[in-house]
Design the sequence.
């Protein structure tokens, strides 16, 4: 097929220029953090620009498809906000617990100090200054008078130091009470925000269901399910090939522990669930075959990266929903489709086992779970030969 043209620039020339820029960005190991941050921003902009140009060259979506994409993108944003709010709630909760523990400790110390000062005050009142007067009138031990007066002065200063420490503890307790009140108010506000986000998420899910029903009726009337499946596969193939060409000349991360190719048969599955669609099996009566696997699991579960790599794509794609593609170097990529939410951005590095998305049924799917592919030089390979065992059972 002819190379796509972005404006007046041939695609290969654009990709070559982008590759040179990104190679330069990755090669200066001695630059300061500000320059590294600028390079990461440029990397995201360049890959993002490629994604936008690829979108322009695809067939225009129907109104129902666009509404489905919008609904699922809104769910994505709300789910990400909920995750951020939950993390902030945990952080504030830990801080509040720490403040309360510190208050309890400081209160106990203040009580002990107060009791000791009270006992000393009673003893000092009972003795008055009689002991010091006796020492001054005692002519038999004049050498002891000065020494004993120094002792009395020392005891007096020590008592005053304990009183000052007591005042410091009381002031610290006041500050702790203020901090506890502030954290408690922040927690209450975040809890309200979380409830609002959860309500919004439920409303968006209902909107998605209505759009999905409309889209299904349209496909049934037009008899276009097979045609759409074929178009979806071609779109994904074009996307992977374009990303492969863009990233082929960019050096891999020097800190990568092992080449991806050496991990065959030892990768962990990206999600917990039941393997219900296998690589190479028939896709119903369409005549097409699955190029990946489908792990059936409830919405909201975690999706983890199978290995270290860089996020090359994080967006909505028809038929695959919210799709994340990770480039592992040496021509290897892993694909994670129909997610409910994506937690990583283009250009970010991820570690093996890191949570990158949430399980869902985006892309117009009716079954919740994860669609998972591994590709080498753009060609799909069997994930069951790369991942060890079977996906663990999803929690009930």
Sequence:
């Amino acid at each position: 097929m002819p190379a796509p043209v972005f404006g007046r620039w041939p695609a290969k020339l654009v990709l070559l220029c982008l590759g040179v820029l990104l190679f330069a960005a990755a090669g200066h190991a001695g630059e300061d953090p500000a320059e590294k941050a600028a390079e990461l921003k440029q990397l995201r902009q360049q890959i993002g620009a490629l994604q936008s140009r690829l979108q322009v060259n695809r067939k225009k979506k129907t109104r129902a498809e666009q509404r489905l994409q919008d609904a699922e993108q809104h769910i994505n944003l709300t789910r990400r906000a909920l995750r951020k709010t939950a993390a902030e709630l945990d952080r504030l909760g830990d801080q509040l617990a720490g403040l309360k523990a510190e208050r309890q400790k400081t209160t106990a110390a203040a009580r002990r100090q107060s009791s000791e000062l009270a006992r000393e005050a009673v003893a000092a009142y009972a003795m008055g200054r009689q002991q010091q007067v006796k020492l001054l009138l005692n002519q038999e031990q004049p050498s002891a008078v000065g020494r004993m007066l120094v002792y009395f002065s020392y005891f007096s200063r020590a008592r005053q130091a304990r009183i000052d420490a007591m005042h410091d503890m009381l002031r610290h307790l006041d500050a702790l009470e203020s901090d506890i009140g502030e954290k408690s108010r922040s927690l209450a506000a975040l809890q309200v925000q979380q409830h609002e986000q959860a309500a919004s998420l439920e409303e968006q899910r209902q909107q998605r269901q209505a759009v999905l029903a409309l889209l299904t009726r349209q496909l049934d009337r037009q008899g276009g399910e097979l045609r759409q499946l074929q178009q979806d596969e071609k779109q994904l193939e074009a996307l992977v090939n374009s990303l492969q060409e863009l990233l082929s000349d960019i050096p891999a991360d020097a800190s990568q522990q092992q080449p991806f190719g050496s991990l065959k048969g030892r990768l962990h599955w990206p999600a917990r669930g039941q393997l219900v669609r296998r690589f190479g099996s028939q896709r119903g009566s369409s005549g097409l075959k699955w190029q990946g696997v489908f792990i059936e699991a409830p919405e909201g579960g975690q999706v983890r990266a199978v290995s270290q790599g860089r996020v090359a794509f994080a967006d909505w794609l028809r038929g695959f929903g919210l799709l994340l593609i990770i480039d592992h170097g040496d021509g290897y990529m892993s694909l994670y489709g129909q997610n409910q939410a994506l937690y990583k951005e283009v250009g970010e590095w991820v570690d093996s086992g890191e949570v990158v998305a949430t399980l869902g049924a985006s892309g117009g799917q009716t079954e919740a779970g994860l669609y998972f592919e591994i590709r080498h030089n753009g060609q799909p390979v069997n994930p069951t030969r790369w991942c060890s065992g079977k996906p663990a059972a999803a929690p009930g």
